[in-house]
Amino acid sequence: MAKIIPFKAVRPTRDKVSLVAARSYQSYTQQQLESRLRDNPFSFLQILNPGYKYDKTLSGEARYNLVRNRYLEFKEEAIFVQDETPCYYVYKIVDRDQQEFNGIVAAASAADYEKDNIKKHEDTIEYREIIFKEYLKTVGFNAEPVLLTYPDNAVIAKIIEKTQEDRAEFEFTTTYRDTHYLWKVEDRTTIEMIAKEFEQMKTIYIADGHHRSASSYLLYKDLRDANPDHQGDEFYNFFMSYLIPESDLRIHEFNRVIKDLNGLTKEEFLIQLDALYRIENRGKIPYKPSKKHHFSMYLDGEFYSLYLRKTSYDIETSLDGLDAQILYKTVLQPILGIVDLRNGDRISYINGKKDIVNIKSAVDSGDYAVGFGMVPVNIEEMKQIADDGLKMPPKSTFIEPKLRSGVTIYEF
User: Can you give the pTM of this predicted structure?
Assistant: First the structure.
């Protein structure tokens, strides 16, 4: 039973939204950041990076307070306005490949996260959770929704379709050629219908944003425990989410590139692989695997196909059958000595939306010795691992859609 509620979003005005909306802060290079901070006074990056205006060395609570001050300035200057009544927000993204994503921006319950009604499939790093929790506590708002996915629902789909017949509150296209649309749902009957449909869902799943949801949960616990009059309906009980049906979710793989062969020669490495995989040399023609438990490999100017020998690996859990886990357990850890997938400095990741030749380029540059390509995880695998209470290895999925910061803001 999922509690998904409407809220009073703080939003950029129609004429400013295209200037305000920003990608995830970590996705910008330093040069890109400096360019946007210099040339676009309305970018949400101006709020996230107040050191550009003040002391660039500030960190921690001092920096978070400046973030909040800059946010309040945007409100005072009427760049941001807040809706007067709680709404759901129908949000549509059409990417440059004309793929559509249709969903609802709403507030999800931290208590549902605690009770595992909102399920997770990916591990998080504790210190990152705590840092972002402290950030949220100081700034008092959340500007990038967690991506949640739910089973396709005919009633919600019809409401979304009907809502989109009206003119959108805003429509803007990014420099990446993604077009974004937002409609307000403020009719009380429609709001009750949406809430009722979500209440009937036993489980929804985090698709992207595990650290953001974990941090919001920690904040909820802190503020709940500190409030002797806690009722359960305070704003801190919820976190902003973008909920899309499972059929709209796009899951790509993350391919792996490794800096060295862990002291092995090419021949020694191939001999060790041969005990676990049937290996075929594909030559210089780029090769991408098409089935589970099959991998591509680029090594010393040539592509190889790797087929897992069924007798060499036992599959006892849903996690054991995940390709990212198989590659880790059979190759990365025992042969190449990669222990820490998240923090190790010998491994890097290339999202599968990019062409397989990106692996070739990375290895040919000399920065990496070998690269591995995989097939994407499917939604049923992801759900099964979450249902079993297991966690995927880091960088197992590259999820779309990718959301923009500053388009809808949840204050708590």
Answer: 0.91
